[in-house]
Specification:
The complex is a heterodimer of chains A (608) and B (427). Chain A is of the alpha/beta class and 608 residues long. Chain A is built from 22 helices and 16 strands. In chain A, a hairpin with a 2-residue loop joins strand 15 and strand 16. In chain A, helix 14 packs antiparallel against helix 19 and helix 19 runs parallel beside helix 21. Chain A starts with 10 loop residues before the first strand and ends in a 26-residue tail after the last helix. By secondary structure, chain B is an alpha+beta fold. In chain B, the strands form five sheets. In chain B, strands 1, 8, 9, 10, 11, 12 and 13 form a seven-stranded antiparallel sheet that branches. In chain B, strand 8 and strand 9 form a beta hairpin. Chain B is elongated, with a radius of gyration of 27 Å. Classes of the chains: A alpha/beta (608), B alpha+beta (427). At the A-B interface, helix 4, helix 6 and helix 10 of A face helix 8, strand 16 and helix 13 of B.
Chain lengths: 608, 427
């Protein structure tokens, strides 16, 4: 048995992320107590129509989000409780809305910092409608083995340690959220645990107070004693004392009160919860409250530490009288476990997961990315450059400054080739059609292939083949002629021996000046000598030159096109930005640029 | 509850149609002279000069001067500004207001009650009210309602006001209630309320104004800051922590208590007071009050820890806490540990014993991290949920040496005994 929250409690949570978190904690309790899921709907207008996911055991339950409490109830007629998790400026409206819906009989508000006036108005509305308004700043309500509203009870392990999977004999009412857990724990260690524990919040005039719930506990046959945690300020504890003294009560009342320190602290120095304010004439002081409760017959230990033994004494008495029976011990193994996440299970060595992806180049799990093991910031601090990063990520090598300079030159001379080439033109057309940067640049990159910029890999592949197999230029050319076709990297549409490609010349001269061992470049230049003798335009083009040099630097054949793609991306991004800044309009070919070779207009025959 | 100083308090009364004396709040004599050229009455009236600070017994401290002409007022302003208030605080503002000639003094207030509010009225005021508390007449006003004309007239009549004055008083009470209700006040007290001799107008001479700080979001015209409520302005460190508190999810709180040697760094608005009680019950001297709760970010807890470690003459620090619902013990402890390390590096915490007790999410990891501080040379004692909440206070003050995390039952029994003794001693 329990009060106000039981197995029939069904909940709508009014609020966003904090509410979803609460729903998850509540689902953990439902799993432990083998109870159906209590949260059935959320109300959060910004997310209306969406779904919140809540793990329940090893399943994920989808819980709909509604615009209003009334809409939620229309779909989920079993809902009878609302938990308010919205900010203080909207809390009043949310709670008011819930109280106005007939089906809701309990509204509990977690929100802190709610204006006192709002709380009083909500209390009045609840009172007039015969409903319960709990809070604000109330941690929640938990009935052992039955229902959890909010995050009261803490982490899953604590639910188990505090035996919240089955009811005990003690009721708990506290203002403090943290202490509610402490008292639940004490009840489970010194006695048989709790029936229901309620956080009423630390405000001076909470929506419901000790007396509200003492009345209910008095009617609950399973609850034999109630522990309240009081504090200086207000008169809630005095009201509890009056209630207890008014007539013979079935339940035993126990209390601890905080705030005795006020007696020796500098006058006027107040702290603790919002409601912890002493009255002008000593009413509301901790001593006043403790005395009144003791006079009323309640058990009030002098210190917090005395509470455990006092609870034990009451429990032993209940056992001796036969009012309660010792709760059978539950083996922890018999309780449902919270399913572990894969990560947790891996940590404890319980599962092995076949990885889906394997990487050999980088790792971003630490404080900063590691490029083939080297922290990015340290590379930067020690003066390494972009070519070194390329070397690490494309070829797993920390290249020399000399090599880096060559890579840098290759990228610089391939960065752009004007708007007329297919890649740039495509990006420009896309930019004019209003396409976003990443898509427009990608469209340009799609043009890179066998006829445009994509010959680097193939050129490298065949030069490498020739050098590896020690082919002479003649052997190579005849092999290519019979097996492959035109030699990739040889030939240009415009440039020739007489009109050489300046970019190639510069690059070759620079590389040669470095006195590096460049067998592929040397071979390519030998090939050029033979081919240009046959035809003026069969020069070693920029793709072929780059390919031969990069193979000489040790880059793999697979990586070669990457240099052109990377370099040209700089140009394509530039073209996109350029068009964007000009505000270029949609482009359309003029008719005179098209040869309309299609059939002339014909009559359409009737459809048969 | 948040206290508002006299100046802004008077401003609110004026806003709701009540008459208050002319007043200016000044921060320098130049400022006072400027104000005087703008407000002619300052030169023509008899004046009252008061320190505009959140401190009690201003009269005793010589921070109230009455019946002054303008030159004397200027002199008083000059003398009062910059006057030391103790604890490194000085008078930074002075309020100069007009003396109102009157014969009779009355008392009126509105206070918050569970059911709504209560209007209190007496036909005696000023210091006389203290000895005439029984002459106060009350009118309860349920929440969501406004007192009717009839009920207010009846209140004034019951308080012993004659016919003419009664209707004036009822009207004034209606305005005061309006002000209370619309300004989210929790306490408004006007004492004395006087009848101005020349025009028989009711004038509020002094006001105590407590507003509901939580309602600030709907009062864009509350441009004033709230005053400290414990009889002194906030210290630099207290302000620093308040600043952090205003920025974060969850909360951190810090109040200095001069002369103490036991620092408190507990979690939770409820548990923190039990810890302070435990220190006091055993004759210990708290050096501060502190509290963090609602899963605050670790950097906020670190700032709080630094301030706690900066307290003078510390012998021990109590890092207590109940079993948390959702505050991550590992993360918040990481903030505390970072604060401790910083303090140690700055040469603080020499010989200071640290006592830890906590439970909640990630308690094992958090407590293990605290325990590991031992290896760094901290004098630290770490206990888990099996040691009752405030036993660490007991142990630290009695300098008992106990094995960490040992069984709790015996300790609890001794605790009760001590508690009982402490109880007796107080009686």
């Amino acid at each position: 048995m329990s009060i106000i929250a039981d197995r029939d409690t069904r909940v709508v949570i009014q609020g966003g992320p904090a509410g979803v978190n609460a729903a998850r904690r509540m689902a953990e309790f439902c799993h432990l107590a083998k109870a159906p899921l209590t949260v059935q709907a959320f109300v959060f207008p910004p997310d209306a129509g969406k779904i919140n996911e809540v793990p329940y055991g090893s399943e994920i339950v989808s819980i709909p989000v509604y615009k209003s409490v009334a809409e939620a109830i229309a779909d989920h007629p079993d809902i009878n409780t609302s938990l308010v998790y919205v900010g203080p400026d909207r809390a009043f409206g949310a709670a008011r809305e819930a109280l106005n819906v007939d089906a809701i009989r309990l509204v509990s508000m977690i929100t802190e910092g709610v204006p006192e006036k709002d709380t009083k108005l909500l209390s009045r509305v609840a009172r007039e409608k015969g409903k319960i308004f709990n809070g604000p700043s109330a941690i929640g309500i938990i009935s052992a083995g039955e229902c959890r509203l909010g995050v009261i009870g803490g982490a899953f392990d604590n639910l188990v340690l505090s035996k919240l999977y089955r009811p005990g004999s003690f009721g708990v009412i506290t203002k403090s959220g943290g202490l509610s857990n402490e008292i639940i724990w004490i009840c489970s260690q010194f006695a048989d645990g709790i029936t229901t524990a309620i956080g009423i919040g630390g405000d001076a005039y909470p929506g419901s107070d000790y007396v509200t719930y003492l009345e209910m506990f008095e009617q609950d046959p399973k609850t034999h004693a109630v522990v309240i945690v009081g504090e200086m300020g207000g008169d809630l504890e005095e009201r509890a004392a009056d209630w207890y003294a008014a007539k013979k009560r079935r339940i035993k009342l126990m209390a601890v009160i905080s705030g005795f320190c006020q007696e020796v602290l500098p006058k006027g120095m107040k702290f603790g919860h919002a409601g912890a304010k002493e009255g002008m004439k000593g009413e509301g002081s901790a001593r006043h409250k403790a005395d009144r409760l003791r006079e009323a017959g309640a058990i009030v230990p002098s210190t917090f530490g005395g509470l455990g033994p006092a609870i034990k004494e009451v429990y032993q008495e209940l056992l001796a009288k036969g009012v309660v029976k010792e709760a059978p011990a539950v083996e922890p193994e018999a309780l449902p476990k919270l399913p572990k996440t894969i990560e947790e299970s891996r940590k404890s060595g319980e599962v092995f997961v076949e990885p889906l992806v394997k990487t050999t180049i980088s790792d971003d799990r630490g404080e900063e990315p590691l490029y083939y093991g080297y922290p990015a910031s340290e590379l930067i601090n020690q003066g390494y450059q972009i070519p070194h990063v390329i070397g690490l990520l494309w070829n797993k090598k920390l290249i020399s400054p000399q090599e880096a300079e060559i890579v840098k030159r290759i990228i610089m001379l391939s960065a752009d080739h004007g708007p007329a080439v297919s890649g740039a033109l495509t990006t420009i057309i896309a930019a004019c059609a209003g396409i976003s940067m990443s898509q427009a640049v990608a469209a340009g990159l799609i043009m890179i292939g066998p006829r445009f910029g994509g010959a680097v890999t193939d050129a490298g592949k065949w030069f490498k083949y020739a050098v590896e197999n020690k082919l002479s230029v003649d052997e190579f050319l005849s092999y290519m002629k019979s097996n492959v076709g035109p030699v990739p990297g040889i030939g240009h549409r415009v440039k020739s021996v007489k009109n050489p490609d300046k970019r190639v010349k510069e690059l070759v001269n620079y590389v040669k000046s470095q006195k590096l061992f460049m067998p592929h470049l040397d071979f390519a230049l030998e090939v050029e000598k033979v081919t240009t003798a046959k035809k003026d335009t069969l020069i070693l083009n920029v793709d072929g030159t780059i390919a031969a040099i990069l193979v000489d630097l040790g880059f793999s054949v697979e990586s070669l096109n990457g240099f052109f793609i990377l370099a040209r991306t700089i140009g394509l991004v530039g073209h996109w930005i350029d068009q964007k800044q000009q505000g270029s309009r949609l482009m359309r070919l003029f008719d005179y640029l098209i040869n309309y070779a299609a059939p002339k207009k014909k009559e359409v025959p009737p459809l048969k | 509850m948040a206290k508002v100083l006299e100046g802004p308090g008077m401003g609110l009364l004026k806003k709701w149609g009540m008459t208050v004396p002319g007043y200016v709040v000044v921060t320098s004599t130049d400022h006072f002279e400027q104000a005087s050229s703008a407000a002619k009455w300052l030169k023509d009236s008899r004046l009252v000069v008061k320190a505009h600070e959140a401190i009690g017994s201003r009269m005793k401290l010589g921070l109230v001067k009455v019946n002054l002409d303008w030159p004397a007022a200027k002199q008083a302003v000059k003398e009062m500004l910059g006057k030391a208030l103790g604890g490194g605080m000085t008078v930074s503002q002075v309020i100069v207001s007009e003396m109102i000639p009157h014969k009779e003094e009355y008392y009126i207030s509105v206070k918050s009650t569970r059911e709504g509010a209560e209007l209190l009225l007496a036909n005696v005021g000023g210091i006389e009210i203290e000895s005439n508390w029984d002459r106060i007449q009350k009118l309860p006003v349920p929440i969501g309602e406004t007192p009717s004309k009839e009920s207010l007239a009846d209140l004034a009549k019951r308080a012993g006001f004659g016919k003419d004055l009664a209707s004036k008083m009822a009207e004034f009470a209606a305005k005061l209630y309006q002000c209370y209700d619309h300004e989210d006040a929790q306490y408004l007290e006007i004492n004395p309320l006087v009848l101005r001799s020349n025009d028989q107008e009711l004038v509020a001479l002094d006001a105590v104004t407590l507003l509901d700080a939580d309602a600030r979001f709907r009062h864009p015209d509350w441009v004033f800051s709230f005053a400290a409520e414990f009889g002194r302005p906030y210290s630099e460190h207290e302000r620093a922590v308040m600043e952090v508190d205003s920025k974060i999810k969850g909360s951190v709180k810090f109040i200095e208590i001069p002369g103490g040697d036991t620092a408190l760094l507990p979690a939770g608005g409820g548990a923190s007071v039990f810890y302070t009680d435990a220190v006091v019950a055993l004759g210990g001297k708290p050096a501060n009050y502190a509290e963090y709760s609602g899963d605050p970010p670790d950097w906020a807890v670190e700032v709080l820890t630094e301030k706690v470690c900066s307290l003078p003459n510390l012998k021990r620090i109590i890092v207590g806490g109940a079993i948390a619902n959702f505050t991550n013990v590992k993360k918040t402890f990481a903030g505390i540990i970072a604060g401790f390390r910083k303090a140690k590096a700055e040469g603080k915490l020499n010989g200071v014993e640290i006592w830890v007790r906590r439970g909640g999410p990630f308690e094992k990891e958090g407590l293990a991290a605290m325990k590991a501080l031992e290896a760094e040379g901290f004098l630290i004692h770490v206990f888990d949920r099996n040691t009752p909440l405030t036993d660490i206070v007991d142990m630290s003050l009695k300098k008992e040496s106990m094995a960490d995390g040992s069984s709790s039952h015996k300790k609890t029994a001794t605790m009760t005994l001590r508690g009982a003794k402490a109880g007796e001693a107080r009686q």
